[in-house]
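User: I'm curious whether this sequence folds into something compact or stays loose and floppy. Could you predict its structure so I can see for myself?
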Amino acid sequence: MTWQLTSFAILALALAAGFAWYEHARPTAKVVALVATLAALAALGRIAFAPIPSVKPTTDIVLISGYVLGGAPGFVVGAVAALASNVFFGQGPFTPWQMAGWGAVGVFGALLARGIGPNISRWGLATACAIAGFAYGAFLDFHLWVLYAGEHSTSEYLVLAGRGLPFNIGHAAGNLVFCLAFGPLLVRALRRYRDRLEVVWHPLEGGPATTAAVLGALVVALAAVAFAAGPGASDAQAASPAARAIGYLDSVQNANGGFPAGGGGPSTQLYTSWAVMGIAAAGRDPDKVRDSGKSGADYMVKNLGQIRGIADLERTILALRSAGHAVAKVKGRNLAHELVAKRRANGSFAGLVNQTSFAILALRATGRSRNDAVIRKAVSWLAPQHNGDGGFNFAQKGGPSGIDDTAAALQALAAAGQGATKTAKKAATFLVSQQNADGGMPLKKGGQSNAQSTSWAVQALVAARRNVNAIRVAGGRTPLEYLRSLQNASGSFRYSRTSSQSPVWVTAQVLTALARRPFPISAP
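Assistant: Here's the prediction. I'll summarize afterward.
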């Protein structure tokens, strides 16, 4: 068999495996429509920039599709984009190579999400797109070497690669610029679409044998480049409870942008602030979650006159900052200065562990450094308030240790750079020791597990760099497994297994825990 026929046979197997992988997931009509739309967008991006050789947003769109939706959808977006755009450019023996190359870019995006996580920076994503551009170009250079070279020697490939280098550099540079311009926006848009429709990508059936078959076909086809195409469950599957929770919050948002205690009630600052933080923790832009054109932050700012007390200031600062809003000039008020003005001479806020903890978190959210004088003095008051068991009371040392207040104090210590101190380690040990057999945490020692205490404990243990997936009573559940067990069909979460109440703030706090994001939560 000739080089050409062998290469086409391998490509055919790789493409067939990729499309079979996608079809095996049994995508819904909504998913098929989304993939088709993205493929069309990628194809149009290639056509629109045809006058500029190699510079086009196609690779970025394909990579981001895989990054958000998973390997199989990303592969199909890339392969279909290549096939569709060649209706304009002309089909040829290069078409299967382009389909395989861009398909692999989609798989690379999924691997990026699994390796780095869902919160990659703008520059990190842009760099990945630039690398994908170089790799795609090297793969097409390889296709020229396979189809048209005479001796198929290394020197011939290097000559072809050298001739194509300017185009590959242009492709990579264009990818970098395009991604810096629209990459994070497209990520957020796709996540919003995915979360609203509860798109879930299931693992391949057939176990390791099926996975190995797909992996092998893709690796052989793309051996000349550094793509390691490995299918697996998308992050969307693990985030399914979070996706449903966001859908629930979206459904109960009122027309003024605020959130009620439950569906159908009036908006309040309290519930709106928790909802905004939960949405931000899950990686969604709270300003994009709107009803009648108004966001949660819009409601909070409009009703800022209701915010006066220390706890209200702390919560509002955390919520507005999580949505990316400044707090120095909000309707003529500097919320951070107002909060600092309420501290006591001993560095505490109201002489309470809880309010001092959240003051530290709120001030850190405004950008104050760990070495800020106000924060250092607050920490110097807070740290000695721990009890002999390592826990903290709501007020001061000597009162019964509570999970919520210990979790808040531990997060404050971590935010102030004290997460590895003996006090912080004892607080983390106390939290772990209070876990019930069902995986959850109680409000007080020996009590019934509940969603809020468990959520705050998860955030604190994450802040202390503890593996929450390894925390379980012998034979019991992890804290995250307990939280997932409380979810209703609506996407909301119950306060406890024996409670029928599902307040908005509970769903928002569980959402934050599922995202494993301690306070302060930064804007998506």
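Summary: The first strand starts at residue 259 and ends at 260. Residues 198-239 have pLDDT under 50 and may be disordered.
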